[in-house]
Design a protein that fits this description.
The chain has 206 residues and is an alpha+beta fold. The protein has six helices and eight strands, in the order E-H-E-E-H-H-E-E-H-E-E-H-H-E.
């Protein structure tokens, strides 16, 4: 399973229009493409930081749609008032405790590791981090996506509410530091988002 993420630093006042565009026009068109298994959109209404992710059955399916997706991406970027950054990923881990509901929020963590240590990082996440995250109050689901060539990875943890996410911060900080040391990884960024759209139908890959 693979994913393509488009990151845009939008004008905060444009977010509602951007979410509506993705939900009502872009998402139905992308979901109809062969090999697509879902789409999600994360937004930070304070900063305008937003990420649209599409999931695909294979890297070939993802690459085959690149030209068709590009004009849709440009429409969204124009609506949001920001320039898109596009990244391709392998979905290495996906686990759901239950389906998210309105009000769900996401904590995303980006890390960098030597490319030859990516598998080690995946093992640390699967066997060390995941069992601890499942104990967090309000835990909904978690995923890990990796770019093996660049030694880059992003973890996304979904919580039932912003309050539950906030209550996990101290424990998550401690867990993140231990896991980064064990995996030989550098934490690049941590950000929190509203889960504006949640239609990623990626199967369990824990």
């Amino acid at each position: 399973m693979h994913a393509r993420s488009t990151t845009i630093r939008a004008h905060p006042e444009s977010l509602d229009a951007g979410v509506a565009l993705v939900r009502d026009e872009v998402m139905p068109e992308v979901l109809a493409m062969e090999g697509c298994v879902g789409m999600s959109m994360l937004v930070d209404r304070m900063t305008g930081y937003c990420i649209v992710t599409t999931a695909w059955q294979s890297e070939e399916a993802m690459e085959a749609t690149a030209q068709r997706v590009q004009p849709l991406r440009e429409r969204v970027a124009d609506a949001l008032g920001g320039r898109p950054q596009v990244d391709g990923w392998e979905i290495a881990v996906m686990h759901r405790d239950h389906t998210s509901a309105p009000g769900a929020c996401v904590r995303a963590t980006w890390v960098r590791t030597p490319p030859d240590e990516v598998d080690r990082g995946i093992d640390v996440y699967r066997m060390g981090v995941m069992p601890q995250m499942q104990e967090f109050e309000g835990f909904c689901s978690a995923s890990l996506m990796v770019d093996r060539r660049e030694g880059y990875a992003v973890s996304s943890v979904v919580f039932d509410s912003r309050e539950a996410m906030a209550r996990s911060r101290v424990a998550a900080d401690e867990m993140r530091e231990r896991a980064a040391q064990e995996a030989g990884a550098e934490v690049v960024e941590v950000a929190e988002f509203e889960l504006a759209l949640a239609h990623l139908h990626v199967p369990e890959m824990a």
